[in-house]
Description:
509 residues, alpha/beta, Rossmann fold, 6-stranded parallel sheet, binds GDP-alpha-D-glucose
Amino acid sequence: MGRLVIVSNRVAVPRRGEAAAAGGLAVALKDAFSNRGGLWFGWSGNVSADPPDVVRHARRAGVDYAVIDLSQDAYDGFYAGYANSALWPMFHFRLGLLDYDCDEADCYRAVNRRYAQKLMGMLRPDDTVWVHDYQMIPLGAELRALGSRHRIGYFHHIPFPPWAVFSAMPGAEDLIRDLLAYDLVGVQTHRDLAGLADCMAQGTGMKMRAGGEVRFRGRRIRLRAFPIGIATDEFAEVAARSAGGPEAQRLVASLAGRALIIGAERLDYTKGLPERLKAFGALLNRFPEYRSKVTYLQVAARSREDVESYKGLKREIEHLAGCINGEHADADWTPVRYVGRAVPRDTLAGYYRAAQVGLVTPLRDGMNLVAKEYVAAQDPQNPGVLVLSRFAGASEEMPEALTVNPLDAVGMAEAMKAALEMPLGERQDRHGAMLRRLRENTVGGWAKAFLDVLEGHEPAEAPSRAAALAVFQARLMARNASTSSANVSEEMLGIQVADLSTARASRAR
Ligand code: GDG
């Protein structure tokens, strides 16, 4: 079996002596890597005016890490620009925030081309390549253009909207065609799969067939939903341990017997933080019996502060929290506690367990791991209640949560009240059902399911564009000496590649 090669936007190289960072993809890929070794490639996180154009290597626990730095221009155009100011809002249905700039779009492609060139030099023929997320959409096509015939899969971590939304992006057709370079395209939910299939059909004319695949130039591209999970049992253990630790104990003591509602996320406009604060305000206004009886703790790790559309968010949240506290606080009670920075993972797990209500109400989210972590962290004997946005991918798998529309402040206030008053038996039933599902679909199982489908594939059939073009030109020249290479279009190339593979398939039969 060949190596597993992961490409993701940010690569956190573990410190010496550390196997991998806790949480996230590193945990998901632990088993996959340990069976076969692997390579993890991407951006180091370093930005400088004129970084050396070299790949730096490190080896940790049997995994090779290869990272490159970004220049300030590449960071501005590729990362803060096209990826986070255009793609991110579009994929989250926020067309009003879509800030498109064609130079930044070019920069995005140029960075992906550079990644492909660097990676191509490191690949072995039998490697399987797994590309992650929206920063890397064109990487597969760039690898194919360099002659790659590897199995290449792409997983899209964020929502996939239908064509009516996607097509607002200038160059939408090129972007969706880029996905045709992959052997497998994975999304989080069935809702996303419907969006992807719609974009394929309307953006490329290719309809998804029964069995979830499209055919393109003789190749088969599978489209599937793979809902990501968490390391459920490991997270539950961390939470149980951490709940007895000093941080969680300090929090519980400070509540003086009041109920706790918790929210935790990156400070991002997709997570619905202002809407959530307004809903908490509505709870205190509509149901005054909860004044002085409940505290809402919001942890909001700072994120993407150099992107324009994030700049006002922090101020808006601080203003809303201040207004609620100004209106309702008492000398010994602060209704909203706002922690504007990340807290350690173990501490957060202990906080989740101490909270009677987990408030996870994004306006859109691919999955939302906080929802899953909150459930895993609960004491099964006395679990808290998850209040979950219907627009989080997690809501497809967690119908036992109290499902809300994050734009409906009163509906959310009522759901918080219902959660705070829910009888123990009902809490146990709902929690038990969700926990069972979280144990069945862990993050390790998610990675395995994706790789099983990707590797059950026959190798990519089509020669690279450049190689196919050369073959086609040679044949045409032989047939008609007057044909110039300039007459050979992409479409002709497509027909030729399809013909070649049909001929190959019929010979095999
Ligand atoms: C993308 C998609 C999809 C949060 N605050 C702190 C902290 N966190 C951790 C959580 C969780 C992670 O960050 C956030 O994951 P999410 O899934 O909620 O959201 P995104 O970062 O937007 O992730 C998303 C995900 O990819 C995976 O496919 O689910 O839809 O947008 O693990 O616990 N961790 C620490 N301190 C904090 O203050 N240590």
